[in-house]
Amino acid sequence: MNVLLAFLNGLQYNTPQFIFFLIVFCAVFFAVPKNWMKVTVIILGNLVFYRYVGGINQLALVIGISLIVYIFSLLLQRIYNQAEKEKPADLGLKQELEFWNNYKKKTRILLIIGIILVISLLIYTKVGRLMSFEQVAFFSQWSFGKVLVPLGLSYFTFSSIGYLIDIYKRKTTAEKNYALLFACVTFFPIIVQGPISRYDRLMEQFRNIPRFDYIRFCSGMQRMLWGLFKKMVLADSIMPGTGIVFTDVFSYSGIEILLSLIMFVTAFYADFSGCMDIVIGVAEAMGIQLSENFRQPLLSPNITEFWRRWHITLLTWFRDYIYMPMAKSSAIKKLTKKSKNALGKHIGTTLVMAIPVLVVWLITALWHGTGADYLVWGVYWAVLTILSMLLQPVFDKISTRLHIRTESFGWRILSILRTDFCYMVSVMFIASSATYGLKGFIYLAKQAFMVVPQGQFLTRIGLNYIRLIPVCIAVILLAIVDIMSSRGINIRQVIARRPLVLRWIIWFSLIFILLVFGIYGPEYSAAEFVYRGF
Amino acid sequence: MEERILKILEETNDELLTYTGDNMLEDGIVNSFTFIAMVSDLEDEFGIEIDEAFTDEEHFGNKDRIIATIKALME
């Protein structure tokens, strides 16, 4: 027993421990017949997972937050239930708005208190990081010498706040069964790094968990395998090398830095989207559908599209709960009217909309990191978004004048490269500033476009030509799968239609490549996913 | 009145006239910039104030819902 517990200590999505955990979990999960039993198995699985990935002392905080969410959701719901009884029949649209607004005055204060309680821990840990852990440790005796950051804090904080706001806006109703809510808050596939999930939709699925389905189970496992491949063969092979470059940028130049940037973006994407494939695949095998977090973002034709396809659930959360309420607020609408009259419709509207755009990008940046580099990163994206909107008519005119066929293949490729270039520049802010501040960024920006190799690049970043072969194969495979997916082709379904022998050859080849070229082993500690820790 | 609404929708994006989904923002038919400009145009055209609560997908998700919402607000 002790050996088993010690073994579980290294639990992470990309470890043999997780495969073991999943086998035991699935065996029990599919064996129990009743829905409430399946929910109980999920909760037990969540607790075991949280114990070994996060820590037992963090669990109290998660239970605390879920209880706050539960209590405040019921308090909000109680007021609305009472209102529903008192609501006169046949109210017009305006009268109905007034009726509910009267009740919202009562619920607003509860919502605010609930949100403050839920978010305080997140802010506390973010401030703790800014001030360095030791200084804040004084205030947190229960954190054993450092600020305690519960596993998945950001993710369940966002989901919890979204849930409370949705109840406040009467878009959903509060769940009376605490076990269901707790199962969602701690759901092990989403707890490490999302996708940020809408609890009402997840609970709806938990209420009616489907029976075991062989095809769905295989499809989920195949997606998980693909995620492991992206993470272990591609991301973990090249991520450490790019780290070496960005912590010593002045020793590298020209094409080496450019290569490192391309490698970093590829590895970062493979890491994060690979993790999403693993967790969405695991949930799919169980019969639970999670939200997609990536839709081939590196193939986006413009930056607006890019951010609709990259870390979708986070950006959607910011859009739904911060950006759109601001943009639709009466203050912004009044400003828009004035600005429209003074500057014309297009410029007037765009300039006013710059306010919520800037606010939401600054908050997104603060969430990623509290350093000046992230502030620059946020401003960079806000300015790019506003400029691209502002100059859209100019771009349209230029392409008409120059007879550019914007639908042509060549133009689409150019647009994709332009978008990826913008993303790469934003990566440079963070990559260089982490160690060298502005000086590092200027050096990178200057050097990135000069072809002056320093030599021995591969050796210096811990790669060789033999290790490059599986990396290149993985990049090509990733590109093919992404291009097919962006055209609406589901590659797993395409493979599923092939003869049995061919199907097994394909999936076993993937397992073989994973076992031979994947980064793991006794001397290697499974690399953490990059978005863990937020 | 319908024609005046449809004219504003057409100016925003003519795809709105043929769009059959129920969430124009989610489906990328309009973006937040053009959406706010459209709401502002509708307010100016009909001299009404459209509360934030009515600009969700339930009331502003597609052409038909917008027409129904504006009509209800004008009553």
Structure in a nutshell:
The complex is a heterodimer of chains A (534) and B (75). Chain A is mainly alpha-helical and 534 residues long. Chain A has 23 helices and no strands.
How does this structure look, described?
- The complex is a heterodimer of chains A (534) and B (75).
- Chain A contains 23 helices and no strands.
- Chain A has 534 residues and is mostly helical.
- Helices cover 56% and strands 0% of the residues of chain B.
- Chain B has four helices and no strands.
- Chain B has helices at 2-12, 32-46, 57-60, 63-74.
- The longest helix of chain B has 15 residues, at 32-46.
- The relative contact order of chain B is 0.20.
- Chains A and B meet through helix 5, helix 14, helix 15 and helix 16 of A and helix 2 and helix 4 of B.
Secondary structure elements and pairings:
The complex is a heterodimer of chains A (534) and B (75).
Chain A: H1 2-8, H2 16-31, H3 35-53, H4 56-86, H5 93-131, H6 133-137, H7 153-168, H8 178-185, H9 188-191, H10 199-207, H11 214-246, H12 254-286, H13 303-309, H14 312-327, H15 330-343, H16 345-368, H17 372-390, H18 392-401, H19 409-447, H20 457-460, H21 465-486, H22 491-496, H23 500-517
Helix pairs in contact in A: 2-3, 3-4, 3-8, 4-5, 4-7, 4-8, 5-7, 8-10, 11-12, 11-21, 11-23, 12-19, 14-16, 15-16, 16-17, 17-19
Chain B: H1 2-12, H2 32-46, H3 57-60, H4 63-74
Helix pairs in contact in B: 1-2
